[in-house]
Write a structure and sequence with these properties.
The chain has 254 residues and is an alpha+beta fold. Helices cover 26% and strands 25% of the residues. The protein contains 6 helices and 12 strands. The protein has a 5-stranded mixed sheet. Strand 5 and strand 6 form a beta hairpin. Helix 3 crosses helix 4. The longest helix has 16 residues.
Protein backbone atom coordinates (compact mmCIF):
# COMPACT_ATOMS: atom_id res chain seq x y z
CA UNK A 1 0.00 0.00 0.00
CA UNK A 2 1.34 3.41 -0.98
CA UNK A 3 1.00 6.14 1.63
CA UNK A 4 2.51 9.45 2.67
CA UNK A 5 2.60 10.93 6.16
CA UNK A 6 2.76 14.68 6.82
CA UNK A 7 3.60 15.87 10.34
CA UNK A 8 3.64 19.53 11.41
CA UNK A 9 6.21 20.14 14.14
CA UNK A 10 4.77 21.86 17.19
CA UNK A 11 6.87 24.01 19.49
CA UNK A 12 8.81 26.04 16.91
CA UNK A 13 9.39 29.44 18.58
CA UNK A 14 9.14 32.82 16.87
CA UNK A 15 12.31 33.08 14.81
CA UNK A 16 14.72 35.98 15.16
CA UNK A 17 17.66 37.06 13.02
CA UNK A 18 20.66 34.81 13.59
CA UNK A 19 18.70 31.88 15.05
CA UNK A 20 20.10 28.43 14.27
CA UNK A 21 17.21 26.81 12.41
CA UNK A 22 18.76 23.34 12.38
CA UNK A 23 19.11 23.28 16.17
CA UNK A 24 15.54 24.56 16.53
CA UNK A 25 14.19 21.94 14.10
CA UNK A 26 16.10 19.09 15.78
CA UNK A 27 14.84 20.22 19.18
CA UNK A 28 11.26 20.28 17.86
CA UNK A 29 11.68 16.80 16.38
CA UNK A 30 12.80 15.54 19.78
CA UNK A 31 9.94 17.34 21.53
CA UNK A 32 7.43 15.80 19.12
CA UNK A 33 9.09 12.36 19.50
CA UNK A 34 9.78 12.11 15.78
CA UNK A 35 12.87 10.42 14.37
CA UNK A 36 14.21 11.26 10.93
CA UNK A 37 14.77 8.50 8.39
CA UNK A 38 16.67 8.49 5.12
CA UNK A 39 14.38 9.83 2.40
CA UNK A 40 12.27 12.04 4.68
CA UNK A 41 11.66 15.57 3.43
CA UNK A 42 11.58 18.64 5.64
CA UNK A 43 9.41 21.44 4.29
CA UNK A 44 10.39 24.76 5.84
CA UNK A 45 8.35 27.94 5.47
CA UNK A 46 10.15 30.72 3.62
CA UNK A 47 9.25 33.17 6.34
CA UNK A 48 11.44 31.59 9.02
CA UNK A 49 14.32 31.29 6.55
CA UNK A 50 14.06 35.00 5.75
CA UNK A 51 13.73 35.94 9.42
CA UNK A 52 16.78 33.93 10.46
CA UNK A 53 18.76 35.48 7.60
CA UNK A 54 17.69 39.00 8.58
CA UNK A 55 15.96 39.78 5.29
CA UNK A 56 14.12 42.80 6.66
CA UNK A 57 13.65 46.25 5.18
CA UNK A 58 12.24 49.43 6.73
CA UNK A 59 10.00 51.43 4.43
CA UNK A 60 11.20 54.75 5.86
CA UNK A 61 14.68 53.92 4.51
CA UNK A 62 13.35 53.70 0.95
CA UNK A 63 13.34 56.70 -1.39
CA UNK A 64 10.78 56.21 -4.19
CA UNK A 65 11.74 56.96 -7.78
CA UNK A 66 9.40 58.61 -10.25
CA UNK A 67 8.63 55.16 -11.69
CA UNK A 68 7.64 53.95 -8.23
CA UNK A 69 5.50 57.02 -7.62
CA UNK A 70 3.70 56.56 -10.95
CA UNK A 71 3.14 52.84 -10.28
CA UNK A 72 1.93 53.56 -6.75
CA UNK A 73 -0.82 55.75 -8.20
CA UNK A 74 -1.80 53.06 -10.72
CA UNK A 75 -1.83 50.31 -8.09
CA UNK A 76 -2.98 52.31 -5.06
CA UNK A 77 0.05 51.13 -3.09
CA UNK A 78 2.57 52.92 -0.88
CA UNK A 79 5.25 54.42 -3.16
CA UNK A 80 8.02 53.26 -0.79
CA UNK A 81 6.71 49.70 -0.92
CA UNK A 82 6.49 49.91 -4.71
CA UNK A 83 10.11 51.06 -4.88
CA UNK A 84 11.18 48.14 -2.70
CA UNK A 85 9.25 45.79 -4.98
CA UNK A 86 11.09 47.26 -7.98
CA UNK A 87 14.41 46.88 -6.15
CA UNK A 88 13.66 43.18 -5.69
CA UNK A 89 12.51 42.64 -9.29
CA UNK A 90 13.76 42.11 -12.81
CA UNK A 91 10.57 43.06 -14.62
CA UNK A 92 7.06 44.35 -13.99
CA UNK A 93 4.73 41.75 -15.50
CA UNK A 94 1.21 43.05 -14.76
CA UNK A 95 -0.45 45.66 -12.58
CA UNK A 96 -3.82 47.16 -11.73
CA UNK A 97 -5.47 48.68 -8.66
CA UNK A 98 -4.30 46.70 -5.65
CA UNK A 99 -2.12 44.31 -7.66
CA UNK A 100 1.52 44.47 -8.74
CA UNK A 101 2.94 41.27 -10.26
CA UNK A 102 6.64 41.10 -11.09
CA UNK A 103 9.41 38.72 -11.99
CA UNK A 104 11.54 38.99 -8.89
CA UNK A 105 15.31 38.68 -8.68
CA UNK A 106 14.99 34.91 -8.15
CA UNK A 107 13.05 34.56 -11.41
CA UNK A 108 9.75 33.85 -9.65
CA UNK A 109 6.55 35.48 -10.90
CA UNK A 110 5.20 36.90 -7.66
CA UNK A 111 2.81 39.55 -6.42
CA UNK A 112 4.83 42.27 -4.65
CA UNK A 113 8.07 40.35 -5.38
CA UNK A 114 7.18 38.07 -2.48
CA UNK A 115 7.57 40.92 0.03
CA UNK A 116 5.45 40.23 3.11
CA UNK A 117 4.07 42.22 6.03
CA UNK A 118 2.18 39.46 7.85
CA UNK A 119 3.39 37.75 11.03
CA UNK A 120 6.34 40.07 11.64
CA UNK A 121 6.91 42.62 14.39
CA UNK A 122 6.66 46.14 13.00
CA UNK A 123 6.36 49.75 14.13
CA UNK A 124 3.49 51.66 12.52
CA UNK A 125 5.69 54.78 12.37
CA UNK A 126 8.38 52.90 10.44
CA UNK A 127 6.85 49.75 8.91
CA UNK A 128 9.11 46.73 8.56
CA UNK A 129 8.64 44.17 5.79
CA UNK A 130 10.20 40.81 5.04
CA UNK A 131 11.95 39.95 1.77
CA UNK A 132 12.50 36.52 0.25
CA UNK A 133 15.82 34.77 0.96
CA UNK A 134 18.66 35.81 -1.32
CA UNK A 135 19.29 32.21 -2.43
CA UNK A 136 16.65 29.71 -1.23
CA UNK A 137 18.39 26.73 -2.88
CA UNK A 138 21.57 27.57 -0.98
CA UNK A 139 19.60 27.95 2.26
CA UNK A 140 18.00 24.53 1.72
CA UNK A 141 21.40 22.98 0.99
CA UNK A 142 22.93 24.40 4.16
CA UNK A 143 20.09 22.99 6.28
CA UNK A 144 20.30 19.59 4.56
CA UNK A 145 24.08 19.33 5.05
CA UNK A 146 23.91 20.37 8.70
CA UNK A 147 21.16 17.84 9.43
CA UNK A 148 23.21 15.12 7.73
CA UNK A 149 26.21 16.10 9.84
CA UNK A 150 24.25 16.04 13.11
CA UNK A 151 21.96 13.04 12.49
CA UNK A 152 23.66 11.01 9.72
CA UNK A 153 20.29 10.99 7.95
CA UNK A 154 19.91 11.84 4.27
CA UNK A 155 16.84 14.04 4.16
CA UNK A 156 15.56 16.41 1.53
CA UNK A 157 14.79 20.03 2.32
CA UNK A 158 12.19 22.14 0.51
CA UNK A 159 11.55 25.81 1.25
CA UNK A 160 7.98 26.75 0.41
CA UNK A 161 6.11 30.00 -0.05
CA UNK A 162 2.55 30.96 -0.96
CA UNK A 163 1.84 32.08 -4.49
CA UNK A 164 -1.15 32.96 -6.63
CA UNK A 165 -1.83 31.41 -10.04
CA UNK A 166 -2.63 33.25 -13.23
CA UNK A 167 -5.66 31.18 -14.23
CA UNK A 168 -7.09 30.04 -10.89
CA UNK A 169 -8.33 31.64 -7.68
CA UNK A 170 -6.58 31.00 -4.39
CA UNK A 171 -2.97 30.82 -3.28
CA UNK A 172 -1.06 27.56 -2.94
CA UNK A 173 2.31 26.53 -1.59
CA UNK A 174 5.16 26.32 -4.08
CA UNK A 175 8.81 25.33 -3.74
CA UNK A 176 11.20 28.27 -3.97
CA UNK A 177 14.20 26.36 -2.63
CA UNK A 178 15.16 22.69 -2.63
CA UNK A 179 18.05 20.36 -1.88
CA UNK A 180 18.13 16.58 -1.83
CA UNK A 181 14.45 16.24 -2.79
CA UNK A 182 13.11 15.35 -6.23
CA UNK A 183 12.17 18.59 -7.96
CA UNK A 184 10.95 17.48 -11.39
CA UNK A 185 9.93 13.97 -12.38
CA UNK A 186 10.23 13.43 -16.13
CA UNK A 187 7.82 10.70 -17.22
CA UNK A 188 8.47 11.07 -20.95
CA UNK A 189 8.86 7.64 -22.52
CA UNK A 190 6.84 5.84 -19.84
CA UNK A 191 3.64 4.00 -20.76
CA UNK A 192 0.14 4.78 -19.54
CA UNK A 193 -2.49 2.17 -18.58
CA UNK A 194 -3.24 1.46 -22.24
CA UNK A 195 0.32 1.25 -23.51
CA UNK A 196 0.48 4.77 -24.90
CA UNK A 197 3.85 6.50 -24.62
CA UNK A 198 3.89 9.64 -22.50
CA UNK A 199 5.46 12.40 -24.58
CA UNK A 200 5.41 15.62 -22.55
CA UNK A 201 4.53 14.65 -18.97
CA UNK A 202 6.76 16.32 -16.40
CA UNK A 203 5.63 16.39 -12.76
CA UNK A 204 6.60 19.24 -10.43
CA UNK A 205 7.21 17.01 -7.42
CA UNK A 206 8.69 19.73 -5.21
CA UNK A 207 5.69 21.99 -5.79
CA UNK A 208 3.31 19.15 -4.94
CA UNK A 209 5.16 18.51 -1.68
CA UNK A 210 5.29 22.23 -0.88
CA UNK A 211 1.55 22.59 -1.45
CA UNK A 212 0.69 19.54 0.67
CA UNK A 213 2.77 20.90 3.55
CA UNK A 214 0.98 24.26 3.30
CA UNK A 215 -2.26 22.55 4.32
CA UNK A 216 -0.75 21.98 7.76
CA UNK A 217 1.28 25.18 7.98
CA UNK A 218 -1.73 27.43 7.34
CA UNK A 219 -1.62 31.11 6.45
CA UNK A 220 -2.44 32.84 9.74
CA UNK A 221 -1.51 32.29 13.38
CA UNK A 222 -0.98 28.52 13.25
CA UNK A 223 2.78 28.85 13.99
CA UNK A 224 3.62 25.55 12.27
CA UNK A 225 6.45 26.51 9.88
CA UNK A 226 8.11 23.09 9.57
CA UNK A 227 6.51 19.92 8.23
CA UNK A 228 8.07 16.45 7.98
CA UNK A 229 7.04 14.30 5.03
CA UNK A 230 7.58 10.56 5.28
CA UNK A 231 7.00 7.96 2.59
CA UNK A 232 8.68 9.37 -0.52
CA UNK A 233 11.38 7.49 -2.36
CA UNK A 234 14.84 8.67 -1.30
CA UNK A 235 16.29 11.18 -3.77
CA UNK A 236 19.73 12.64 -4.44
CA UNK A 237 18.31 15.46 -6.58
CA UNK A 238 20.49 18.54 -6.09
CA UNK A 239 19.12 20.57 -9.02
CA UNK A 240 17.32 23.01 -6.75
CA UNK A 241 13.94 24.69 -7.17
CA UNK A 242 15.32 26.91 -9.95
CA UNK A 243 14.61 23.94 -12.24
CA UNK A 244 10.88 24.65 -11.79
CA UNK A 245 11.09 28.13 -13.29
CA UNK A 246 10.08 28.23 -16.95
CA UNK A 247 12.40 30.17 -19.24
CA UNK A 248 10.88 33.45 -20.53
CA UNK A 249 11.41 32.18 -24.09
CA UNK A 250 9.11 29.23 -23.28
CA UNK A 251 6.49 31.30 -21.44
CA UNK A 252 3.46 31.73 -23.71
CA UNK A 253 1.73 34.22 -21.43
CA UNK A 254 4.26 37.04 -21.18
Amino acid sequence: MKKLELIALEGIPLIEEGDNLVEIILSALKGNKISLSNGDVLVVAQKIISKSEGRYAFLNDIKPSQQAIDLSIETDKDSKLVQLILNESKEVVRYRKGVLVVENILGLIHANAGIDRSNIKSDSDNPRVLLLPLDPDKSATEIRKEILKKTQKKVGVIINDSSGRAWRNGIVGIAIGSSGAEVLSDLKGNLDLFGNTLEVTEVGKADEVASAASLLMGQGKEALPVVVLKGLTESEDLNGAKALIRKPSEDLFR
